[in-house]
């Protein structure tokens, strides 16, 4: 079967040449470089590879998996092999999520250009696909899987196998009836549109039909008034329902006559429910919708720990790719551990471990290139400086020369500020967080005075450093003579403006001795104990100063803590190992999904009030307590957990988890549906009470029930309470890596009520 997108795919000479196939070198490391034959399939949407032309081919990647294509000189690996392969012949395929990049070297510059341009053309096409085109592509992919002998048509035997691949358990006689009904040509096989008809017969949505008929007087269409009733009564759209109904009909009704008559057919109704307007995530929260003119400390800031690592903390690989990936997912605070390197060039790695090393200047270049591709709001470089005076000067020079005007090296107006600037004022600026020799006041005064002699300057620096760091002894070294630390270089110190790193002793000490532009870092254990012992003081501290929380050094596997408890106390920079997928990163992605994925989210007002009485462990009740009722109705096209087991079909259940203050953190789940991942029906209602909804995140997780062991993960979706839409909504599932599992979804009904009535304690 030709792709259902045939005729809509771009026509280009490069694509035709890619479909003929090309022998290229696949490069994994300096020692692993092997020839492979790559070919774009006839569907124009998948690339297969073999050891040689005509050899046994297997899928390499789908175009929908590709994020972008980079030139050879942008690849760390290919740059290291520049003496062996010309960089112009190399290119890198970058995938969505955490999948490793694919580095390839063609036999000529022309061949490399053909593949780079062709792939980017297809990636741009996939990115611009509408809902129907994405579904067509999904169907084409399945047809390719099911058409085992690749003759472009499917026998009933192939269809039966495909049903198992698609998670469908169906009586053989019923399946054969549907097959015969779809086989309009009576050829005993299904081709193109016949396969589409067969798929449609599988995806009837009786629960949506029932809902449609509840509001439709004739069961055939929803009139404008009927649709307005639905939007008001069920979707809680309020006064805007009338105008919205017209917009939605115009957008989702497939027939022109229906649009003219302002009516919505069943197909149009389903299209609406499945669209971004019918999504659980409120579309008004997708763009920048919050006030971005408040001081920096009033925001949660998406933050990364040991950003350079793409693996574990002991032997993992250090890579500029860690920074690129973090910045592209909206991270606004990245960490850079800098040590003395060979040939006078500082290096970045996890000190005293076997992690690999990368040049500091490469890290700065990557940050400069990718800092503002996803978000215009400021990026914070959290510097962990372990370098000698000489190499600190190199650090300062690289920052200044490579970042240029992007680097903030003085206050915005040259005057002494009274509070931190806002994200809006700092648009497209990169800020350095680190140790500083003097106060900001002294720095600004000095700019107006004559400089000291070099000797006097060095003496003053030594004094300042001793004054600012009398406490640097670790518990184990208190009885030992402290090793002398390198004096902080003035040129590097001067680049720290609004984010001077200081050691935390107590909240009282901070109030009495520190300034608003000074910031402290807390280990997860320290931050946890402070929340328990002095939760309200921590909240108040975070109303005027920035705090950074980082994972325990014992997390050598790059695992993460739950960030929610630190957000509850108003901590702004809660740093996570972004290379590690799982619940904790789902929560981070969920919180920062709003506000255009800008990496900045305004904290609730009670965490910004300098007189706040809020204590995250003991919130004063009642806050703005709410009851949440979630009816989990049905699921659609859930993926297989193990695609290698053709005969196994998932037994899905849905777990709803709430994360917020400790009293609100809970979970409930439905029963499981046996042997049906294609269109399972639950129809079960879960009820929650939430004391502080402003801090709550909801996580919907679909699992494959297994009575012998832990249930397997199928997909999830996480969002903030304040971005949740009420009514009948689809939840479009994401993989462990946060990648869309389109068209996998669950269909729910959401209802919130003020207060805690009717909910058991």
UniProtKB/TrEMBL annotation:
Topology versus the membrane: Peripheral membrane protein
Cofactor: Ca(2+)
Coiled-coil annotated residue ranges, if any: none
Domain PI-PLC Y-box: 492-608
CDD domains: C2_PLC_like, PH_PLC_delta
UniProt region (Disordered), positions on chain: 441-484
UniProt entry keywords in alphabetical sequence: Calcium, Cytoplasm, Endoplasmic reticulum, Hydrolase, Lipid degradation, Lipid metabolism, Membrane, Metal-binding, Nucleus, Repeat, Transducer
GO MF annotation terms: calcium ion binding; phosphatidylinositol-4,5-bisphosphate phospholipase C activity
Annotated ranges, domain EF-hand: 134-169, 170-205
Subcellular location: Cytoplasm; Endoplasmic reticulum; Membrane; Nucleus
BP GO annotations: intracellular signal transduction; lipid catabolic process
EC identifiers of the protein: 3.1.4.11
SUPFAM superfamilies hit by this protein: C2 domain (Calcium/lipid-binding domain, CaLB), EF-hand, PH domain-like, PLC-like phosphodiesterases
Domain C2: 608-735
Example of a GO cellular component annotation carried by this entry: nucleus
PH domain sequence ranges: 16-124
Subunit composition and interactions: Interacts with GRIP1. Interacts (via GBA motif) with guanine nucleotide-binding protein G(i) alpha subunit GNAI3 (inactive GDP-bound form); low-affinity interaction.
Protein name: Phosphoinositide phospholipase C
Gene source species: Monodon monoceros
Origin organism lineage: Eukaryota, Metazoa, Chordata, Craniata, Vertebrata
């Amino acid at each position: 079967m030709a792709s259902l997108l045939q005729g809509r795919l771009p026509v280009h000479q490069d694509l035709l040449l890619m479909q003929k196939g090309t022998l290229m070198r696949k490069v994994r490391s300096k020692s692993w470089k092997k020839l492979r034959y790559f070919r774009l399939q006839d569907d124009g949407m998948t690339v297969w590879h073999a050891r040689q032309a005509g050899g046994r081919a297997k899928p390499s990647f789908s175009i929908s998996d590709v994020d972008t294509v980079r030139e050879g000189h942008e690849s760390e690996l290919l740059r290291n092999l520049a003496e062996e392969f010309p960089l112009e012949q190399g290119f890198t395929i970058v995938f969505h999520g955490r999948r490793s990049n694919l580095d390839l070297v063609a036999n000529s510059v022309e061949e490399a250009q053909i593949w780079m341009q062709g792939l980017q053309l297809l990636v741009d096409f996939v990115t611009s696909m509408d809902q129907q085109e994405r579904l067509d592509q999904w169907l084409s992919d399945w047809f390719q899987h099911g058409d085992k002998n690749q003759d472009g048509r499917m026998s009933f035997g192939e269809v039966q196998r495909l049903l198992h691949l698609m998670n469908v358990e169906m009586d053989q006689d019923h399946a054969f009836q549907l097959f015969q009904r779809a086989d309009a040509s009576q050829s005993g096989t299904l081709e193109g549109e016949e396969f589409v008809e067969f798929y449609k017969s599988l995806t009837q949505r009786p629960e949506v039909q029932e809902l449609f008929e509840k509001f439709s007087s004739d069961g055939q269409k929803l009139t404008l008034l009927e649709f307005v009733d639905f939007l008001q009564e069920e979707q809680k759209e309020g006064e805007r329902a009338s105008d919205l109904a017209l917009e939605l009909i115009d957008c989702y009704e497939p027939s022109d006559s229906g649009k003219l008559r302002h009516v919505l057919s069943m197909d149009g109704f389903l299209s609406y429910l499945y669209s971004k307007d019918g999504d659980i995530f409120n579309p008004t929260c997708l763009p920048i919708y919050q006030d971005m003119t408040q001081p920096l400390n009033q925001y949660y800031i998406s933050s990364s720990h040991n950003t350079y690592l793409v693996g574990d903390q002991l032997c993992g690989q250090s890579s500029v790719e860690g920074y690129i990936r973090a910045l592209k997912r909206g991270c606004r605070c990245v960490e850079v551990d800098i040590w003395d390197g060979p040939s006078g060039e500082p290096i970045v790695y996890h000190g005293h471990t076997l992690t690999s090393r990368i040049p500091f200047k490469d890290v700065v270049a990557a940050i400069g290139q990718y800092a503002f591709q996803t978000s215009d709001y400021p990026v914070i470089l959290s510097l962990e400086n372990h370098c000698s005076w000489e190499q600190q000067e190199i650090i300062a020079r690289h920052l200044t020369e490579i970042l240029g005007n992007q680097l903030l090296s003085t206050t915005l107006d040259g005057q002494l500020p009274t509070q931190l600037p806002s994200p809006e004022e700092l648009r497209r600026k990169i800020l350095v967080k680190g140790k500083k020799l003097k106060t900001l006041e002294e720095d600004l005064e000095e700019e107006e005075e004559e400089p000291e002699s070099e000797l006097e300057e060095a003496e003053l620096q030594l004094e300042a450093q001793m004054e600012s760091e009398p406490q640097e002894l670790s518990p184990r070294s208190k009885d030992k003579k402290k090793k002398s630390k390198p004096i902080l270089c003035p040129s590097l110190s001067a680049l720290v403006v609004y984010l001077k790193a200081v050691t935390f002793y107590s909240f009282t000490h901070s109030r009495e001795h520190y300034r608003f532009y000074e910031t402290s870092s807390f280990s997860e254990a320290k931050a946890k104990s402070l929340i328990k012992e002095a939760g309200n003081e921590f909240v108040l501290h975070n109303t005027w100063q920035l705090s950074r929380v980082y994972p325990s050094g014992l997390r050598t596997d790059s695992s993460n803590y739950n960030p929610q408890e630190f957000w509850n106390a108003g901590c702004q920079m809660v740093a996570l190992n972004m290379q590690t997928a799982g619940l904790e990163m789902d929560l981070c992605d969920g919180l920062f999904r709003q506000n255009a994925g800008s990496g900045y989210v305004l904290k609730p007002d009670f965490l910004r009030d300098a007189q706040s009485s809020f204590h995250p462990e003991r919130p004063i009740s009642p806050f703005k307590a709410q009851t949440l009722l979630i009816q989990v109705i049905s699921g659609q096209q859930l993926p297989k957990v193990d695609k290698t087991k053709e005969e196994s079909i998932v037994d899905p259940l849905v777990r709803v988890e709430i994360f917020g203050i400790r009293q609100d953190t809970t979970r409930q789940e439905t029963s499981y549906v046996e042997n049906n991942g294609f269109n399972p029906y639950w129809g079960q209602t879960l009820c929650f009470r939430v004391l502080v909804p402003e801090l709550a995140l909801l996580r919907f997780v679909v699992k494959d029930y297994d009575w012998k062991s832990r249930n397997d993960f199928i997909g999830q979706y996480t969002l903030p309470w304040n971005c949740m839409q009420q009514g009948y909504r689809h939840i479009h599932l994401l993989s462990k890596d946060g990648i869309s599992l389109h068209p996998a979804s669950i269909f729910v009904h959401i209802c919130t009520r003020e207060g805690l009535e009717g909910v058991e304690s």
